[in-house]
C-alpha cells in the first residue's frame, strides 16, 4: 500500500506541480495516473522512489514514511521502467538486467542466471542476452527495461509512460504482457500515461489528473465511464462521443451495439 | 646536396645519434617532457573536469579558464617562469603542464556532458549511488572524448617541448637553437624533421587508442575537434526531466 498524504511539490522556478495531493494505492493492483502534459503525473510517480522529494507532505509505503528512508536503498527495492528504456548502452542486455541485484551484493554468476530467467519472463529470447541495447528493436528494449525493473524482485513497479515511444502494434503486445505479468507476479504497479485507452486497459484503479496534480476522479474504469465526476472527466474519457458513446439497436431478435455514427461495433450476447 | 637531403644526412650521421647529446637522448627528453607534463596536467584536470561535468556547476569558469589558458603565449610564459625558476627543466615543465591542461579539462567535462541525460536519470532511478553513476556510467561513456582531449594535449606539448632548448632545458629544441646560433641549417632541419615525425607517430597512436576505448555497443557520432566544440545543445538536453512528454 502506497499512501500520499497532503503531498505538495513546488519546483525552484515556482511551478506548483502537485498541490495537497492525497491518494491511497492498493497493493497487488495496477493504479494508473492519467492526464495531459503538465498535470504532475510524472512528478507524483518520481516522488514514490524519491527521485523527487516533496516540498511538504508525506509518502508512506506499507506505513513507513519514505522521507525517513535512504533514497538509494529505497530505489533498489522499487522497480522503475521509463520511456526509452534508459538502458546503459555500454553494457550487454544481460548485464543491464543484472545491474540492481549486483549493486545489492548478489554474486555476479547468480545475478546473471537470474537475469536469464527474467528474459524468459518478459518474453525475450535468451539469444539476445549478449547483445547490446542498440542492437535491439524499441519494443525489445522496453522488455529489457521491464526485466531490469523486476530484477530485484520488488513489490512495487513504477512505470513512466513505458510504451510511449513504440509503434501501436508493439504497444498493444507490451500492454497485454504487462497485464499478464502483473497478474502472474502480483506486483503493485503504478503506471503513468497520457493515453486514456491504455489507462482503462491496464488500470484496476484509474486516477484522472488535472493541472497541478488535482484529482478529477478516482475509480475503476467502469465507475468512471458510468459516472464521470464532472465535464472535464466526461470530455477527457470521451464518454459522450465516438467509440464510447454506444447505443443498442434492435435487429430482429438481437441487440446490436452501434457507435455515435450508427456503425455497428458488436452484438450483445444473451 | 640540397637542404632537405642535408637534414636527413644529419639525422643519419652516427656521430649525431648516440651519446648524452645525440638525438636519441634528446628525443627521449622530448618524450619525457610530453608525457610528464600531460600526466601532471591529467592529475589536475581530469578530476576537475569530471566534477564540472557531473555537477554542471562551475562550467562557465571551466570554459573561460581553459580558453584563457590557451591564449597564453608559450614562449613568453616560459621566459617569465625561467626568470623565477632558473634555467633547466623546471620552467619548461611547468609551462607545458599549463599548456596541457585546457584540452584535457575540456575533454573530461565534455565527455560527461555528452552522456544521454536519460541514461544517467535511469541509473539513478534504479538505485545507483552518485559515485556509481560516475564510475559505471559517466566515466566509460565519456572516455572517447577524454582521450580526444589527451590527444590534443599530447600533440600540442610534443611540438611546443622544442622550446625547452631556449632555456637550456634540453630536448630536440637544443639542436635547433644551437643550430641557429651557429648557422648550421642542416642540423636545424634534421631536428625539425625529428620533431615532426615524433608528433605524427604520437598522433597515429592516439587515433588508434581513441578507436579502442569507445565502449562496445556505442556508436560514435562524428567527433568534432574537442577544443572548439560548443556544448550548448547538450546543455539544453541536460535540463532536468520534468513532466510527461
UniProtKB/TrEMBL annotation, chain A:
PROSITE patterns: ABC_TRANSPORTER_1 (PS00211), ABC_TRANSPORTER_2 (PS50893). One of its GO terms (molecular function) is ABC-type quaternary ammonium compound transporting activity. Transmembrane segments: none annotated. Signal peptide: none annotated. This is ABC-type quaternary amine transporter. Residues 2-237 form the ABC transporter domain. It is an enzyme of class 7 (translocase). Keywords: ATP-binding, Nucleotide-binding, Transport.
TrEMBL record, chain B:
Residues 27-206 form the ABC transmembrane type-1 domain. The keyword Transmembrane applies. It is a multi-pass membrane protein. One of its GO terms (cellular component) is plasma membrane. It is found in: Cell membrane; Membrane. The chain crosses the membrane at residues 31-53, 65-87, 93-112, 154-177, 189-209. The keyword Repressor does not apply. Keywords: Membrane, Transmembrane, Transmembrane helix, Transport. It holds the Pfam family BPD_transp_1. Belongs to the binding-protein-dependent transport system permease family. This is ABC transporter permease subunit.
Amino acid at each position: 500500500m502506497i499512501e500520499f498524504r497532503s503531498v505538495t511539490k513546488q519546483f525552484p522556478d515556482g511551478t506548483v506541480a502537485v498541490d495537497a495531493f492525497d491518494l491511497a494505492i492498493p497493493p497487488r493492483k495496477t493504479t494508473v495516473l492519467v492526464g495531459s502534459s503538465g498535470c504532475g503525473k510524472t512528478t507524483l510517480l518520481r516522488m514514490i522512489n524519491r527521485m523527487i522529494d516533496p516540498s511538504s507532505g508525506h509518502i508512506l509505503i506499507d506505513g513507513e514514511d519514505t522521507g525517513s528512508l535512504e533514497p538509494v536503498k529505497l530505489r533498489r527495492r522499487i522497480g522503475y521502467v521509463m520511456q526509452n528504456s534508459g538502458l546503459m548502452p555500454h553494457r550487454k542486455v544481460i548485464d543491464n538486467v543484472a545491474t540492481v541485484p549486483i549493486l545489492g551484493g548478489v554474486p555476479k554468476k547468480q545475478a546473471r542466471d537470474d537475469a536469464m530467467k527474467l528474459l524468459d519472463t518478459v518474453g525475450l529470447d535468451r539469444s539476445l542476452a549478449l547483445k547490446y541495447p542498440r542492437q535491439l528493436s524499441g519494443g525489445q528494449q522496453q522488455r529489457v527495461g521491464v526485466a531490469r525493473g523486476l530484477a530485484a524482485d520488488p513489490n512495487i513497479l513504477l512505470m513512466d509512460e513505458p510504451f510511449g515511444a513504440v509503434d501501436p502494434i508493439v504497444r498493444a503486445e507490451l500492454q497485454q504482457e504487462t497485464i499478464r505479468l502483473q497478474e502472474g507476479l502480483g506486483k503493485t504497479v503504478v503506471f503513468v500515461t497520457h493515453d486514456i485507452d491504455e489507462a482503462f486497459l491496464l488500470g484496476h484503479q484509474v486516477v484522472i489528473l488535472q493541472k497541478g496534480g488535482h484529482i478529477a476522479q478516482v475509480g475503476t474504469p467502469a465507475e468512471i465511464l458510468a459516472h464521470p465526476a464532472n465535464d472535464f472527466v466526461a470530455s477527457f474519457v470521451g464518454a459522450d462521443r465516438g467509440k464510447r458513446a454506444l447505443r443498442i439497436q434492435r435487429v430482429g431478435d438481437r441487440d446490436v451495439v452501434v457507435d455515435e455514427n450508427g456503425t455497428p461495433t458488436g452484438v450483445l450476447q444473451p | 646536396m640540397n637542404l632537405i637531403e642535408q637534414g636527413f644526412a644529419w639525422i643519419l650521421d652516427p656521430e649525431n645519434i648516440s651519446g648524452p647529446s645525440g638525438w636519441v637522448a634528446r628525443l627521449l627528453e622530448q618524450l619525457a617532457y610530453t608525457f610528464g607534463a600531460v600526466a601532471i596536467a591529467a592529475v589536475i584536470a581530469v578530476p576537475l573536469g569530471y566534477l564540472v561535468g557531473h555537477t554542471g556547476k562551475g562550467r562557465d569558469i571551466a570554459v573561460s579558464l581553459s580558453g584563457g589558458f590557451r591564449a597564453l603565449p608559450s614562449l613568453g610564459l616560459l621566459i617569465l617562469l625561467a626568470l623565477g625558476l632558473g634555467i633547466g627543466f623546471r620552467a619548461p615543465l611547468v609551462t607545458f603542464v599549463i599548456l596541457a591542461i585546457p584540452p584535457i579539462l575540456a575533454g573530461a567535462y565534455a565527455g560527461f556532458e555528452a552522456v544521454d541525460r536519460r541514461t544517467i536519470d535511469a541509473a539513478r532511478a534504479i538505485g545507483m549511488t552518485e559515485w556509481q553513476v560516475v564510475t559505471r556510467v559517466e566515466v566509460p561513456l565519456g572516455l572517447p572524448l577524454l582521450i580526444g582531449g589527451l590527444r590534443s594535449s599530447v600533440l600540442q606539448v610534443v611540438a611546443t617541448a622544442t622550446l625547452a632548448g631556449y632555456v637550456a632545458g634540453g630536448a630536440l629544441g637544443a639542436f635547433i637553437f644551437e643550430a641557429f646560433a651557429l648557422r648550421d641549417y642542416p642540423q636545424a632541419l634534421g631536428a625539425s624533421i625529428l620533431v615532426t615525425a615524433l608528433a605524427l607517430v604520437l598522433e597515429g597512436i592516439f587515433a588508434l587508442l581513441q578507436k579502442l576505448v569507445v565502449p562496445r555497443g556505442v556508436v560514435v557520432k562524428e567527433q568534432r575537434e574537442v577544443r572548439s566544440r560548443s556544448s550548448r545543445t547538450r546543455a539544453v538536453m541536460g535540463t532536468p526531466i520534468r513532466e510527461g512528454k
